[in-house]
Prior knowledge:
The protein is α/β, with parallel strands linked by helices. It has helices at about 5-10, 15-20, 30-50, 65-70, 85-95, 135-145, 160-165, 165-180, 195-200, 230-245, 250-255; strands at about 55-60, 75-80, 105, 120-125, 145-155, 205-215, 220, 225, 260-265. Helices cover about 40% and strands about 20% of the residues.
Amino acid sequence: MDWKEQVKKRFSENGAAGRWSNIYSKEFSNVEAVSFRNRRDYTVNFIKDNVAAGSLVLDLGCGAGPVLKELQPLDYSLVGVDYSPDMLQFAAENLDSSGKKIPLLRGECEKIPFPDNTFDCVVCLGVISYAESIDKALDELHRVLKPGGVTIVSYRNKYNTICMDPVKLIKHVLTLPFTFFKPEKKVIGRSIPRSEVIADIKNHPFVILKEKPIGFGKLRFAGKVVSDRKLAVKVNNGLDRVLTGLRLNFVYRAMADVHIFILKKPDL
């Protein structure tokens, strides 16, 4: 099965589409749901505070429409694009049918179905983990943005599950000399090292405006989940307060589950 078919299957109704549609509901109290709701809220608040009313905003990889739903009542022109027909169906059902009509189109991040210099803002949450080439996805984000436009890109951090599991962390440190130069096998939905994302961003004429780490995920010991609910949420919130209060940004970035970059396409 080729890469795109794997992605389509992963986000089909028989795959994870229903779970991703429901994860933003408050009834989902696990730590992953909390982190993804925080990711959504950070994105929406950034747009409200920094993107002018009337702007054209694309949600690329819109999924079931959690970001579009929050932006729908506001004064933006919105478009949603996703590769999965089932996710687009969930988005259509989740959006307010009596509100502003939002076009929902099928498309992919490595070939965005719009002309150059179209959008003032592109939301791209979690999508690059499913791109066969992050470099091509960033090419496309840059292409469809207007000069001065911004894109909000998120991914999951490869080292989160290592940093949050003491046994895996010790094993990783001890085996690092033997694995450092071993090429990583790329699979759909993979967590990505920050260094790889930074390197890909630097290959493009973007300006990094902000970087925001969010959450620390499940508590694990020797690869087994100790907690992914109340205890994990409390530990996540406590770590956030401590590391933010002490301004230990480099530690937060190393440990965080979700990373967000705000990138700007320079003005002409």
